[in-house]
# Entry
Amino acid sequence: MRKYFQIPEKVIRKLAKVKEVKNIRGKDIVDIIDAIEAAGHTDDLIHLQMEFSFTKNKGGLIIERPLSPFPKESDTPEKFLKRLVEREVIPSNFQSRIHWQPALDDTIKICGAYRDANVVFLNIVQRKFSTRKSGWGGSIVEPYADVAPVVIHFEENIFIEYRTSQLANIKPFILDLLGYQGEIPFEKITKVTNADANAIKATLQAIYSSEQLALPSTVGSIRLNSSKGKYDLENDAFVAELRKFLLSHNFPADDRMDVTCHMAQFKDPITGVELPITFDINIKSGGFKFSTVVTQSAIDHIVDTIVRVCYINKQQKHGEPEEVLS
# Structure
């Protein structure tokens, strides 16, 4: 396994370019890493390794807020992590190790953990299987480690980030780790309305590069894509005329099933590396999905925006208490 294995190769190459590391054209990624270190930028590599340690690069994002407090035995990061160590699901030196590779079997396990103030990051691993062709029509079934990051916020407004859309096994596992018992009601913060999606887009200064409109007709739905993904469909003149046409024929013009938000560049505040960010908002079923590699700083920025738009602002508007039910 190469050094800084969490960092995607294209990000390492971008870092080398930003730092003006010389003589790397056509070189293997391991040689480029050595050149970056030789140029005195090891700290930047270490930073980026952490930036990608709990992001899975691409994948879903579902944010849920429990409507009852975290159980007392796990209601602070200290208590929660102590509980995990005592149950031997993470090693006692997890904070210095961050990542490890448990044996893969039929059980869900933790393969990474890190604490940052009132936030705990976990990497959850499950054994899954892939099938590939072999020889003249044969096939080989091989196990692999499927990793899904989960981030637990122990702040005033407690919530859980599942950085995956596959919650069937992972959510019960996390709730058990926290000490919950029985059915627990949750508010799904990533279940957004059209207005919420528009506010998120505006706050992030993003554009809609794609959207799918539901139509009560034989067509069912239509998908709109901006030319080369560079133009905002929300403010496009042609799309405005299309909406008028739909309304003139008694069809809804803004019943979006999903939208794709695109940010041309997000700049890492430490290294200066810039990456485009694209993510889908599923308005009908709730949930977000990243289709580009994404750093921790970028996710933090997007999650903060979602929580502000979809929870905090609504609580303040309606004058409702923000604490969970006891």
